[in-house]
Amino acid sequence: MMTSRSLSLLAPITLGIIILAAWEAICRLWHIPPYLMPSPSAIWRALMLDGMSLLHALLITLEITFAALVVAVLGGVLIAFLLVQSPLIERCLMPYVVIMQVTPIVAIAPLIIILIHNTPLALTACAALVAIFPVISNTLQGLRSVDPDLAAYFQMHKATRLQMLLRLRIPSALPMFMAGLRIATGLSLVGAIVAEFVAGTGGNSAGLAYQILQSGFQMDIPRMFAALFLITVAGLVLYAAAASLQRFALRHRS
Amino acid sequence: MSSPVLSLSSVEKIFPNGVRGLSPVDLSVEKGDFVTLIGPSGCGKSTLLKLIANLHTPSAGTLNWWGGGFKDVGQKGRRMAFVFQDATLMPWATIVKNVRLPLDLEKVERTTANKRAHAALERVGLGHVADQYPAQLSGGMKMRVSIARALVTEPDLLLMDEPFGALDEFTRNRLDEEMARLCYEDGLTTLFVTHALHEAAFLSSRVMVMAAHPGRIHAQYEIDRGIVRDETFRLSDQFAGISKELAILLEDASRDSMIGQEARQ
Hints:
Order of helices and strands of chain A: HHHHHHHHH
CATH superfamily of the largest domain in chain B: P-loop containing nucleotide triphosphate hydrolases
InterPro entries (chain B): AAA+_ATPase, ABC_transporter-like_ATP-bd, ABC_transporter-like_CS, ABC_transporter_ATP-bind, P-loop_NTPase
Organism (chain B): Gluconobacter cerinus
Number of helices of chain B: 8
Radius of gyration of chain A: 23 Å
Number of helices of chain A: 9
Number of strands of chain A: 0
Helix content of chain B: 25-40%
Family (chain B): Belongs to the ABC transporter superfamily.
Oligomer: heterodimer
Largest interface: A-B, 19 and 21 residues
CATH architecture of the largest domain in chain A: Orthogonal Bundle
Pfam families (chain B): ABC_tran (PF00005)
Number of domains of chain B: 2
Radius of gyration of chain B: 19 Å
CATH architecture of the largest domain in chain B: 3-Layer(aba) Sandwich
Order of helices and strands of chain B: EEEHEEHHHEHEHEEHH
Keywords (chain B): ATP-binding, Nucleotide-binding, Transport
CATH topology of the largest domain in chain B: Rossmann fold
């Protein structure tokens, strides 16, 4: 008998292999030119050929992604703590948090890039802006999801404000925060790529988005696919890392 | 004569929405009493317990703990512990850390606190799960951890709000027997809220039968303190007799509550 775990791993891999084989066969049988639709083998060759430059670009994009994630998490948690302090503060600030969220990043990115001269810094700001909202809203909701009976218990035992925060509010907020962190991780990558597209930074500090744009200009479609493949792999790894961090942090709770 | 553990005189509770939770209540609890509050839902039994725990403030009347105000509660000889309907444990902390919580909040030194927490766990028969997490325990075990967390403070008054209401009958009976042993052998003063008549008949030295609309004390029923509360007692004619008399009082109280409700409408 196959366990459901190995099945859930084997089934999508098998499907992937079938699709790749069909893709390769169609490209070869119908002689589809690589600038229209490259075959998987052509993409693989492009990846081998340009691997180093693409990897370098990926690292630059990942640097922006991580920097943005750190800014989003620190900033988001700080804002959430501020908002939870008093209903007045929340009423003052919350509309702006929402405005920040509903404005599409593509629309404000050019402005940010003009305002901040240092390009990596501008890119980080854009990506952080995308990723910060789930951190704020989840942490806020987490800080409020304290079991009221447990809070009453702390009060009954005359707990100080600091004890309430460290021993009750923060651990209570952790599950929601971790869920927010997982979403923010994916969004940081999205934000970094979008910002790079808008900035169109070339030269030595060009990220993967620029490589995609450039490959498009040069009609080097296999290279474009190779870059896309790297972004996808990076996204998957980030998602898996965030998910395992979440599982680790909450391992005792279920 | 020393002052009673608890004395309530004309304590009332009217909620901010205008609902009268509790009509004036007088109640006195002496050291070693096991007082049970029982009644139909809406009779204010939980409200009364929360007033005593200082989780609510009374709208009128006076409450005294050991003849004094609430600010002295928590000092030696005036310790109060509360057990909720749910175990109300911290899911992120091990069992021993959960039991240690009230000591940690009081900043009791770590090794002393650990020793006392382990001793409290032994008293409820859970010494072996000290390093596990709440999620690994059954509902009945979690409730016992909650009781250990109350016992660890060496309380002089134990307040329990329908603590075993969510458990199956078998587990509830076992825990009732454990409670009886802990309370009667150590002379622990207890105030217990329940809606289960058999539980009240089994555990109490005094039962306060409450009625609703508005919440009030309807009748009082004394049970011999000297009875050994074990399985034999549960099967005895004496227990059946107590249960029957309580059932009559409770029936009376709920009829009274219905009249009150109709009068209000």
